[in-house]
Amino acid sequence: MTLKVYLSGEIHSDWRAQVMQGAAGLDVAFDGPVTDHAASDDCGVAILGTEDDKFWHDRKGAAINAIRTRKGLADADVVVVRFGEKYKQWNAAFDAGQAAALGKSLIVLQPGEHDHALKEVDAAALAVARTPQQVVAILRYVLTGELPR
Question: Are 105 and 79 in contact (CB under 8 A)?
Fold first, then answer.
């Protein structure tokens, strides 16, 4: 069985690479958002034209990025949403909510200090992991039945 896994959330660390490297050899296809921060922020104005008002600048980019995100979430079997330490990731919370609404298997990856703030998101998740390695162990177990050594 091939698992389609959508990797959502913070883009300021290498957690995606850690998950993908750890899952090497497993029957997993990964997808995710554009992780080039500048490209993600500016895609709307780069494609559709400049905006004087920052609200509309951001709105154009968010809408174009949503095309990719909606498709990725819809096609996913499992959605992993990472909440990092550096910023409040409202977009990640939105993705988690969409995944839950779509009935997707949701894994949240977050540090313990976010537990209280994310309690509603965590309640919708099937697992709350602390490390990318735990995410890999979940994927390995789901695909093979193998427990970590």
Answer: yes
